[in-house]
Structures are given as structure tokens and as C-alpha cells.
């Protein structure tokens, strides 16, 4: 189809100092023809590395002989013209681009079903960055041949419709630094071989249907900074080996079926800033060792079936900005010392069995405003003076009213049913991967930017 264009291109470059291999240029034209709704792309860009460039294609020059090679193809919404065609797919001609280092395709496969052939990536020796993201019609299984691309440093296949299990061959990617398979329909268990990814800093398998226990081999990922496994069907307990991840900054195991207790070995994670384990059947108490996570900024243990007291060791977390302990069975008083945490800006201890007189400082209560959630603790009250307005604002009764309600209950009158009330920033739908609290979205996005750049 594009043979004439290649011949002209070849003759043109032969007259200069540098050439481009005919087969490679033909391969580029065929790859772009499979993706873009522009049959004239070869005519508009006959010399894509020099005189007629396109923003989504980059080239580099090799020596002996001096020759251009395509090293990057990027298709995405930031390049508005030409758009992807409705029948867009990945051409086997991609194999002709032997020097490609980066392939990124965003929001391109949206209507016609697309799968990746089993042999598509196995022969690449230079590919470092593969990102196929936000392509709802990209389905099928992840090709095991990806495990043969030893040069791969970033593999991001998020927000697609991939199915099946994570191929164990992925564990052979010894240079891999980032693995993001989030927001797919992946099932089965996490392969034990994932512990072989010794260079990895980011692991994100969130929002799939992965089941089984967390492999102990995760503890071998000594460089890991982010581990996000939320919204799967993981079970068992948190392996003590996770305590070996000394560089871990974010640990998100929320919305799974992981049981407790929370392993004491986690207290060795001295760099941890985000600990998110909400909506798991952890049960038991909050370990006192939580006070050893001195860098913690956000803790979420809501909906974990926790019992016992809120530990005073939380007062050691001077960097804490968000604490969510709602929807548990915690009892006893609210430690007043929580109000002295200098950076705390979100506090959810709603729907527990907390009791006694609330003794948080007034200035702390006013600072947090609606970001303080105390509802659903029927035995918790606020003193009548000088907090008449705060009682109504916080939706908890004054201590005088509490005594009256208790007397009424003893006489046979029902107490108000608060079981249906949910905190405003609680995960309403555990199976949904779009129900993140806004404050966590901002902080996690900032974290990822810091890790990547």
C-alpha cells in the first residue's frame, strides 16, 4: 500500500547524509495506518524523523552507518489530530520497529474489540516503556511474551479490559521499575514470581478480581515505594515479610478480605506515609505499635471490625493529616490528645461504640469543621457549657440530653437509629473503584508524581 512512498523516501534520504531503513519506515506507516483515521498520513509525513515530523513519533540517530530509527510512538488525547479510527488495532508490523523504546497508546481502542497477540512483544530488545491505558475495548489476556522483553522498565496496562491471570513470566522482567495493571478484570492469584522484580518501585494491581493470599515474595521488593492492591478479593493475613520493604511510602490493601491482626513487623516501615487497610475483616485492636510510623500522613482503618480503645500512641504521629477509624466497634473515650496533632485535618471516628464526654479542644473542632465526623456513637456526648452550638453542629447530643435519652430508653422508649448514616468521605461502595475520597485522590496523585518524576 505504501511501497511507492517508501521508495521515494529512500531515494530522498540516500542523497543526504543519513538514511532510514526501508522496512522500518514501511512498518511505521503500517502501524499508524492501523491506528489513525488518516489514510494520507504517509503522504503528509514521508520523512517523519526529519523534514515532516509528527508530534507522536520520535527518532534517534545511530552510527555505523548514520541512520535514523523510530524510538517512540505516542497516541493520546494530547495529540488531537488525526484521531484514532473506530477499528483501531495494534498491527503486527510493530515488530518491524526493532529500535522502539517507548510505545504509549491512550484512549484509542474504544469500540471494536482488540486483543494483543501472544508473540507481539517477544522480539523487542530496546523497549523500555510500554503504556496501553484507558482503552475499554482492549481485552483478552496479557501476553506472556512480555516477560521476554528484558529491557522493559515501565509496564502500564491500566484502565483496560484485560482478563485472565497475571502471567508468571512477568517475574522475569528484572529491570522493571513500575508495574501498573490496575482497573482491569484480572483474576487468579498473584504469582510468586513477582518477587523477582528487584528493581520495582511502584506496584499497582488495584481494582481487579485477584484472589488468594499475598505472596511472601513481596518482601523481596526492597526498592518498592508504592504498593496498591485495593479493591480485589485478596484473603489471608498480611505477610510479616512486608515489614522488609524499608522504602515503602504507600501501602493500600483496602476493600479486600484480609484478616488480622495487623502484623507488628509493619512497624519497621519507617518511611511509610499512607496506610490504607479499610474494609477488611481485620478485627482485634489497633496495635500500639502504630505510633512508630512517625512519617504517617494518612491512616484509614474504617470498616475493619476493630475493637478496644483508640491507642494513645497515635499522639506520636505528628505528620498525620487524615485519620479514619469509622464503622468499627471501638469503645472508650475519644483521646483528647488527638486534638493536639498539629497537622490533623481529617478525623472520622463515626459509627463506633465510643463513650464519655468529648474533650477535644474547641479550636480543633472549629478548624476541622465538617471534616470531623463523630456521628453514630450513642454514648458519646458533649458538655452543655460552653458548647451549646457545637452539640448541634457535630450531631452528637449534649451530656444532659444523653442522660435524658438513657432514662427514656430505660423506660421503654427507643433510641434514635443511626445505623444508616455514613460519613461523607467513607467508601460507600466497596466494589466501586471510583469512590475514593477527594482528599486521598489529591494526596495519592501528588505521591505518584513525586515517585515518577
| Number of helical stretches of at least 4 residues | 7
Specify the biggest β-sheet.
15 strands, mixed
Based on CA atoms alone, the radius of gyration comes out at 28 Å
CATH C-level class of the domain at 283-421: Alpha Beta
What is the CATH superfamily classification of the domain at 283-421? Ribonuclease Inhibitor
What's the architecture of the domain at 283-421, going by CATH? Alpha-Beta Horseshoe
CATH topology of the domain at 283-421: Leucine-rich repeat, LRR (right-handed beta-alpha superhelix)
Shape: elongated
What percentage of amino acids are in beta strands? 15-25%
Structural class: alpha/beta
User: Could you tell me the mean pLDDT?
Assistant: 85
Helix content: 10-25%
Record the SSE blueprint:
Elements: H1 3-14, E1 19-20, H2 22-35, H3 41-44, E2 57-62, E3 67-75, E4 102-106, E5 129-133, E6 139-141, E7 154-156, E8 161-163, E9 178-180, E10 202-204, E11 211-213, E12 226-228, E13 233-235, E14 250-252, E15 274-276, E16 298-300, E17 307-308, E18 322-324, E19 329-332, E20 346-348, E21 353-357, H4 362-368, E22 372-373, E23 379-381, H5 388-394, H6 399-410, H7 438-452
Parallel strand pairs: 1-3, 3-4, 4-5, 5-7, 6-8, 7-9, 9-10, 10-12, 11-13, 12-14, 14-15, 15-16, 16-18, 17-19, 18-20, 19-21, 20-22, 21-23
Antiparallel strand pairs: 2-3
Helix pairs in contact: 1-2
Structural account:
By secondary structure, the protein is α/β, with parallel strands linked by helices. It has a domain at 283-421: Leucine-rich repeat, LRR (right-handed beta-alpha superhelix). The chain is built from seven helices and 23 strands. β2 (57-62) and β3 form a beta hairpin. It is elongated. Residues 1-17, 403-431 and 435-453 have low confidence and may be disordered. One of its GO terms (cellular component) is plasma membrane. Residues 119-352 form the Disease resistance R13L4/SHOC-2-like LRR domain. Keywords: Cell membrane, Leucine-rich repeat, Membrane, Repeat, Signal. It holds the Pfam family LRR_14.
